[in-house]
Structure formats: C-alpha cells, structure tokens
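Supplementary notes for students who missed Thursday's class. We covered one full example, reproduced here. Read the sequence, then the structure, then the short commentary at the end.
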Amino acid sequence: MGTVFDVSGNTAYAPEGAYHIFAGKDASRALALSSLRAEDCRPDWDDLADKEKQVLNDWFTFFSKRYNIVGQVRR
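Structure (token representation):
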C-alpha cells in the first residue's frame, strides 16, 4: 500500500515546477533512483537494490516530516 502526501502547497510540484513529474503519481521508483524521468514514475520498486530501497525509505521520511498524509493507495 502506498502513502499519498499533500504537496499542493509547494509550487515545486505545480505544472511548471521542478518536481511536477511526481505530482499525481506513485513515483516510488523514480524517487528510489533519484530520477526525474517520466518513465521511472511508477510504483514497482521491489526489484531494486537494497541501496535504492534505502533511498526510497529516506524520501518517505523526508515527505513524512513535511507533508500531511491524505490517503493510501492499494495495489
């Protein structure tokens, strides 16, 4: 199950923002890979190396401290 964060108050996720590619998507794989490529914005990350999974966990911690959780996505 994925966590949905409310980033709507941050202009970086707006259509012209630097991180707009992540808005409205499960960008787990892209975050784990530190990628801004649209094709990496997808929920599958189980096949990634432990180092990349730790990067994803670090991003989850980052978002958890800054944004409200507004929902959960079930796979």
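Commentary. Residues 3 and 72 are 5 Å apart (CA to CA). Helices lie at 28-33, 50-66. If anything here is unclear, bring it to office hours.
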